[in-house]
Amino acid sequence: MTTLSTARPDPVVAAPPRLELRTPAAIDVFTRILTHGPIGRIDITRQTGLSQAAVTKAVTPLIVEGFVVVDDEQQRGLAPGRPVYPLRVMPNSLLSIGVKVNADEVIGVATTMRAEIIHSVHLPVADTSVETIVTAVVSAVSSLRADLGDSAARVAGIGVSVSGDVDTRGGVVRDSALLGWHEVPLGRILADELQSPVLIENDVRALTIAEQWFGVGVDAGTFAIVTIGAGIGCGLYVNGDVVSGANGVAGEIGHLPLAPESYLCTCGRHGCVEAVASSGSILAAIRASEERPELSLQDAIDLAHAGNASAVAAFDRAGRVIGTAVAAMVNLVGPEIVLVAGESVANYDLYETRLREAFAEHAFGSAANARIVTTSHTFDDWARGAAAAVIRATVRGEQMVAA
Amino acid sequence: MTTLSTARPDPVVAAPPRLELRTPAAIDVFTRILTHGPIGRIDITRQTGLSQAAVTKAVTPLIVEGFVVVDDEQQRGLAPGRPVYPLRVMPNSLLSIGVKVNADEVIGVATTMRAEIIHSVHLPVADTSVETIVTAVVSAVSSLRADLGDSAARVAGIGVSVSGDVDTRGGVVRDSALLGWHEVPLGRILADELQSPVLIENDVRALTIAEQWFGVGVDAGTFAIVTIGAGIGCGLYVNGDVVSGANGVAGEIGHLPLAPESYLCTCGRHGCVEAVASSGSILAAIRASEERPELSLQDAIDLAHAGNASAVAAFDRAGRVIGTAVAAMVNLVGPEIVLVAGESVANYDLYETRLREAFAEHAFGSAANARIVTTSHTFDDWARGAAAAVIRATVRGEQMVAA
Question: What Gene3D superfamilies does the record tag this protein with (chains A, B) (predicted)?
Fold first, then answer.
């Protein structure tokens, strides 16, 4: 275990402690301890199918290096019979920084190895030019490093999550309609600026990675997360991993052509789910029918709550098309649980009933047994997803864009 | 390795040679040899991430028991430098029987461990009652066992594939619209009748398993197979395995609500893909517009080939809605390759153009780079899928319904 000298002049450029997991078995064992700890060796053996000897071989160096600790004192005497000595990770032995890039704001968080948020920072941005965004991301990271102090040396990497088509391996934002970007080598630019490994990830995939290791995925065999807000996205966890898409595209539930042809989407296509159900589309519909172009989203929500017929109709339409899209996804992929996660606004009451109605109508056979759970996500959660992606890449030894 | 005495009185009840792979590493190594063989030990080490010692430990008993052979004579001297001694399975060391149940026919095949068809049998059925189907499956299996002779003792199990919602673990056909079945414990019934382990699988999933291990999946990281005919189904291979669906339902592309509401589907819903694009729907549309209820599917195809406007329109409509459904699936799941597999009829020319047009129109961003490959499947291929499912379950040590 690396211990930090308080006299170290520049904690930022110091290399973080090296977590080196050289075999698939070591990765598997560490992942179990990270995501399921505290966990006994017997349970690791059972869950991984590895022999006890193989588990011990994998665990010993992790304890020596300070990434894993044995909870002996804690458990001894608590349960009758043989003591359990469960294993858990040292949450601060490695840290992560995650940044979510929005069109009007950059949000950064510093987290423990278990993706618990320690510090966060929100910086408004005036435009979405690459220069403006890079400057904001660098400021956010500097601020978080300052908050971390000496511990900044323990940061394994910087994760940045962006809406759109992202080439994670190359660190390139291939296409982001939200930012108006095309083929931007963001990973390379930021790795040079920040002198740190950088991981660029699609924002919904990053959120799904956080749920895979530190959320609903810990116990569910398969799950989907559907995010609703300015865009409508979907992350999938199937057969033990997040679905990435062979060409970098997956989970594009917002662009399933399930709405009437007459609705034009911002992507240029007709009949996309987003054309009816994104917060922008809902607002536009209510502004048009009320002939009040000055309405804000909050005004629109208030109108619907007050029973205004056209506002209620717009939210109903959105709920129905989202429910239909969720059914289409469930019929194809068959997840056990679907998290429907709204962006900050708590306005589920306005469409949850329609969403569940449409889902039940279109779910095929026992696909209807999928559990639909509504939840809400803050922008900090999106940034936490980017931090979780760095943690996962570090554990798996997957390459980030090097400094 | 079990050797068969030709004097053995009843080859059928003799237990097949036991392939016992006790650790995940042994399963992984054997799977590589089965699906990628002939393959050198170095390549197995590289592909599995296991140590050379672990590979040798897994391989040795397989060679001793006769499931794996070393191709030393064959390779020595063929390539310069160090000899390779590649490993491959003994294709006849274990056999499999697969049966596909259709509404009017039961098709059975006997295969090698590499799912190569050795014998096949087609038996017409008068109705789809459980009794009629069970009798036909038993006859088909008896006929294949007779064809195999003494080798019948090497059959690891009987796979039966059925369209609909299937509980593979319990061997229960939960719902099959094609057969009019609900909660039929087919696995239990057949295991008792046949005195053999039985595996019941959804037909499209079984076809996908065959492609996973012995087809396009050998080299593709992700793929989808879309089957077109009386029904329209989809099998998905993602993150190293076939997608099963937490509730047994997945790949129901035929019931995505992408067609106009006015089309009523056999499932009772409106606007399903099948309501426009199944062979039955295409035929019904052409019969109605031509006012010729006596037309056969072949007549309808001939009419379209001759340029009959309403026949061409019906195939165009089918092609467009299938292409849209393929795009929806690709946008969600992101496969590298999509096999579009027609049932025997070679009528792709009638809708392939429209299918590709609609796919290109609705594919999102680089999802459009997915390779769409049209191919055709015979009913023997469907039965082979059921045989492949038995092979996979045997290798993985997954439970079948025991005799």
Answer: 3.30.420.40, Winged helix-like DNA-binding domain superfamily/Winged helix DNA-binding domain
